[in-house]
Amino acid sequence: MTIAVDFDGTIVEHEYPKIGRPIPFAIETLRELQKDGHFLILWTVREGALLEEAVEYCRTRNVEFYAINETYPGERSEENYSRKLTVDLFIDDRNLGGMHDWGVIYQMIKEDQPFTPYDFSNTVSQRRSRENKNIFLRIGEAIEKAKNMK
């Protein structure tokens, strides 16, 4: 598989623009995924020197990326380059439902079952439990409530 991996909050804790503490088992899992033949792409908002710092952080820990912020090496030099990646899987701390532990991530990929459905029923039921009012009515009520609190 081709797997895009975020850096801040996924490989290391959020300390941007600094590099945070390592997230347990992130680097070890990425090395195992590489050994298993997966293509890893670093997918991050970092650019310039901050990006090089992140790449070097991983490189010194024996994680080499197939590409960085592009689907394949050299894609940015092409006329039709897009920041939209064509990958099989994204590993990112901003996933809906949160991020699994790196051990769980590895098992899901190894078992070729990375896509477990997220149960939205709780979210939907919470949303429906609110009064079914027009959004503008709810905004108006919130404004009135705020005025009365002064």
Summarize the structure.
Helix content is 37%, strand content 9%. By secondary structure, the protein is of the alpha/beta class. The protein has one domain (2-110): HAD superfamily/HAD-like (Rossmann fold, 3-Layer(aba) Sandwich).
What structural class should be given to the helix and strand makeup?
A: alpha/beta
CATH topology (fold) name: Rossmann fold
Radius of gyration: 20 Å
Q: Write down the secondary-structure element order.
A: EHEHEEHHH
> What is the H level of CATH, i.e. the homologous superfamily?
HAD superfamily/HAD-like
Descriptive report:
It is built from five helices and four strands; from the N terminus they run βαβαββααα. With 150 residues, the protein is α/β, with parallel strands linked by helices. The protein has a single domain, classed as HAD superfamily/HAD-like (Rossmann fold). Helix 1 packs parallel to helix 3. The longest helix has 15 residues. About 9% of the residues have low confidence.
Please give the structural blueprint.
Blueprint: E1 2-5, H1 26-35, E2 39-42, H2 48-59, E3 67-68, E4 89-91, H3 102-110, H4 121-129, H5 135-149
Parallel strand pairs: 1-2, 1-4, 2-3
